Amino acid sequence: MAVDRISPPAPAGFVGLGVMGAAMAANVVKAGFALAVSNRSRGKSEALEAAGARWATTPAEAARGASVIGLCLPDTPDVEAVLFGPGGVAEGVAPGAVVIDFSTIAAAPAAGFARRLLEERGAHLLDSPVSGGPAGARDGTLTCMIGGDAGAFEAARPFLEAVGKTLTHLGPPGAGQVCKSANQLMVAATMQAVAEALALGRKAGLDPDLMRQALLGGSARSFVMENHAKRIIERTFQPGFRAELMRKDTRLSLAAMRDHGVFAPATAMAAQMMEALVNSGRGGLDSSSLGALVAELSGLKE
Question: With contact defined as beta carbons under 8 Å apart, do 11 and 33 qualify?
């Protein structure tokens, strides 16, 4: 497609106002887009409406007249319903518009949704799963892993820049989701290693805080060691990113490895541990509560 930047104050839409979506939509409003928002419950839109967003009763209404529409939804079936179900985006989106799906879903359906939206409505769908968590969403510093038409990516860049700091176009539809599966694998597997390391230190009589300080000074330094290890030590497991969502993501990682024929024992282990974490009753806690499960299985008391 010809690149014609979709810049503020262009009309835009956003569907899905959970913790991530609401923060991203707020940054879109701050950037100057004329934003219409839609969600299953209107209560989550109150702050956005107060900031200047317009309420839309359906995704179709949010998409109608918009040059760019963002989605942030829990899983693949939710994205399909919002795009193509009754009152969905496809009913209102105009030819040439760009829809950006920030959800983390399976790569093959993401590519299929892009083909279908282009064939049926002449609109482009970018898959752009994100990393950076609620803090990144709030601060507008998310990492966006993007698949889809290169021209659509360039056209929607100002919208993407409102929510993210690192924008990487990785290839055709579905490519962003493949990269996100790799990201989640690396986070989950590293978290397992950190949980085991901290349990080892405790069983050997080391001070966990001092151990973390030492590890941050060497090659073991990572985002997980900086952030999740602190949560594990302090047992502060109120969600940022719920364990049940990480379980969903590691299932996607495992499926992606299988689909592409990758030898993936670390992925299998990470997925198995996330299943165990949710089955232990911690699905609503932060995914870093994996540290509590590993400690428990290691015979450590709180």
Answer: yes
**Model confidence over 50-95: pLDDT tens digits?**
999 999 999 999 999 999 999 999 999 999 999 999 999 999 999 9
The answer to whether residues 151 and 3 touch, using CB atoms and an 8 Å cutoff, is: yes
What is d(CA 257, CA 214) in angstroms, rounded to the nearest whole number? 34
Active site residues: 180
Domains 11-173 and 179-297 share a fold: no
Q: 11-173: which CATH number, 3.40.50.410, 1.20.1070.10, 3.40.50.720, 3.40.630.30?
A: 3.40.50.720
Task: Decide: 199 and 211 in contact? Cβ < 8 Å.
Answer: no
CA angle 89/93/98 to nearest 5° reads 100
To the question of pTM greater than 0.85 for the whole model, the response is yes
List the domain boundaries for the chain.
11-173, 179-297
Q: Which of 189, 192, 83, 185 is nearest to 127 (CA)?
A: 83
What ranges make up the beta strands (E) of the chain?
11-15, 34-38, 54-55, 68-71, 98-101, 124-127, 130-131, 142-147, 164-171
Q: Which residues, other chains included, contact 8 with Cβ-Cβ below 8 Å and sequence gap of 6+?
A: 31, 32, 33, 158
Q: Determine contact, residues 272/121, Cβ cutoff 8 Å.
A: no
Would you state the CATH architecture of domain 179-297?
A: Orthogonal Bundle (1.10)
